[in-house]
Hints:
Layout: E1 9-22, H1 28-33, E2 39-53, H2 69-76, E3 84-88, E4 101-104, E5 120-123, E6 128-130, E7 133-137, E8 140-141
Antiparallel strand pairs: 1-2, 1-3, 4-5, 6-7, 7-8
Amino acid sequence: MAGPHSPAVSLDGLGKKFRLTHDRNWTLKATVLNGHRTRYEEFWALRDLTLDVEHGDTFGIVGGNGSGKSTLLRCINRLVEPTSGSVDLNGTELRAFAGNFLWSTGANEVAGRYCRGHFDLPMRNCTVALDGEPVVVDGTLVDGLA
Length: 146
């Protein structure tokens, strides 16, 4: 339980592991011939991260593409569950806030967009417009966009 002098954010042994698939069986024939097995490797985006951020502190997360910045913010925001360790937000559960989401800019290798870096901004109860049209109003996605 967080006390009055606890850090605003405390990470203890935080880790997040993903399974990266290789040679996925795209057809029924391939699945049968390969014995229903899909090859994969484990990839640790974060491993054994311990960090305290005190109330009133400002901190930045800097690193190259693939270094775990987005994964760290997603774990802090509870958008993904860590594989190991814990995140304590001085007793505050961010999922309890309406309109909590992570706005990410920059590279998206799946979409074929590459760049030298990007920003991830956790946002709450904001309004976002694209080309002058609101897509998020007061932290809520506009109807029909989901």
